[in-house]
Amino acid sequence: MMQQIDLARTALLFLPLFLLGLLALPGRATRRAILALIAAAVAAFALPLILDRGTLTYLVSFSTMAGIYAILALGLNSQWGLAGHVNFGVAGFFSVGAFTSALFTTTMPEGALAAYSQQAFGLQWPFLAGVVMAGILAAIVGFLISIPVLRLRTDFLAIATLGIAEVIRFIFQNERWLANGPQPMRGIPRPLDCLFKDPACSWLPTGVADFLAPLSPRDYVFFYLIVVSLILALVFIALERISRSPWGRMLRAIRDEENSAAMNGKNVTRRRIESFVVGSFIMGVAGAVYAHYVVSIDYSHFNPLFATFIIWVMLMLGGSGNNKGAILGAFAVWGVWSGAAFMIDSASPALQLISDDLPSRGAYLRWMLVALLLGLIVLYRPQGLIKERKRVSDFMPDDTNKD
Amino acid sequence: MSETNGARPPVLEVRDLVKDFDGLRAIDGCSLSVQEGTITGLIGPNGAGKTTLFNLITGYFKPDSGRVFTNGEDITSLPPHAVFHRGICRTFQIPREHGTMTVLENLMLVAPNQKGEHFWNCWLRPNAVRAQEREIRDQAMEVLEFVNLTHLATEYAGRLSGGQKKLLELARTMMARPRLVLLDEPAAGVNKTLMNKLAENIEFLRRERGVTFLLIEHDMELVMELCDPVIVMSEGRRLMEGRPEEVRNDPTVLEAYLGGQYGAA
User: Fold this and answer.
1) B255 part of contact set with chain A, CB < 8 Å
2) I need a labelling partner for A289 at 20 to 30 A (CA). Which of A369, B73, B160, B222 fits?
3) Ranges for all domains in chain B classified under CATH 3.40.50.300
């Protein structure tokens, strides 16, 4: 017999599993929906029974983080995958989104607190408004940057964007008035966290409150996974729609052969900027989702390794130009990354034998693994796990060009 | 401009165009015009500035001085996509297909003013986009039929042979319904049979669709058969212009091609 806490967890797991089913299962829309419904129901009941509570919580927080990375990878895909921008400044847009949402949703510190913690403003807006503002502001920053920077191509663009992301990071590190740099910005509100508090939110019907009662604030991540999956699903659907359209076709044409696209009447500069701004918006949204998850953010979260290059590896492993691939890559690389931590932990006696200080440098071994992975992808599977689809436009009638 | 005497302005007029590349004068006061409904040949020795002239007309380079008009409208220094929207299409010496897209979508891409090119229409007006995509697809299939590439519609354009890519280039210009097409060596690297086919297509488009052509070509047989008039360029200037047989027998043309000692004789 399931305990009530597991039952509550089952209820919370259902929606993310259902969305995963919709994404991963084959077949036409209706068939897929029914299959996903069944599979999600089974899995949501089975998981709390099979796994112990700690493991399940770990798995859920793993998926939440991977989901945030998946949003970032989608953002990068709309720049690199669709239009060929070598943006090495993902971290910049990510951080702009995170700090923007934090500023819009937190409370301005007052009284004694104001002496320790400073920020430009704190508007106490609701979570979703913060997410939207994060996207908009990242898009504005992306637009302003794109005007000078998109004159560059390939490695020159990479260096310029890398530099800009570092500038943004240093701004958040050094400008205390803006977002309390270099101290963390704390107290970023979690949406609906009253669900897991005692007493629960006052507006909650008693039945629901009683059902959720056994869950503690530590189980909040189960709810946040729902938030992340919904936002990820929305971003995926919206991006998928416009990638597989005449707009996406134009971007692929520009990516392949810019001069010819221009001579086919396409305003190359404008379209390149559009795709850059769309990507920036998505990265900004990811930043917001991240900020409200970790509650406290500072500049150090947005270094190039963690917030740019790992996302590149994710996209390249999953398949550049393929939105599903971007999501798959994010989960796969985050799995390798997290798995490597366990592996290195369990191998630490062996590492000790090689050299005394090797176990303490385990973190670098993880990066080495990711680098190795990148090397293998480039050598053996440059198109990624899921290849870019041959046909671009889904708006074209179905009776031609089957793929 | 010739509007004063009531005649229509030429479909293309280039006036006193100059272009320097770091002291090398590639185009040196070039003036020429192309009359509507002609297939005008543009020949000249290597380095005469023919392709540079195309690049100046289509906005890839900005001229240092001089002007370019189409149907009396000044299009000097307009960017390439704006030149396209004035009814001028161009192919490249080395085909520049979009290799990771299908042949069909290479053509569909070219159709001007697509609703789905604005990404918000894909969210907000999917049915309008879908209806237009159907029209464009049908048009592209017709064009493919015309150039005999129907069987390759769903193949990656990058996989086509050199000659097929040349056909695709010509097909591309047909999608745009242009007034003027600039062809840069359409027959280079193309076998005899395919070349005849190309020539037929060009002549058909001129006759039936009223498209004007300006084509750079080194294959004299093709030029003599297809073009009238022929413009000869040398050292960045128009050397002469005339009917094919006049050009063939002109000593200055021979001199430009072969060097002074032959022309002087």
Assistant:
1) no
2) A369
3) 10-97+176-263
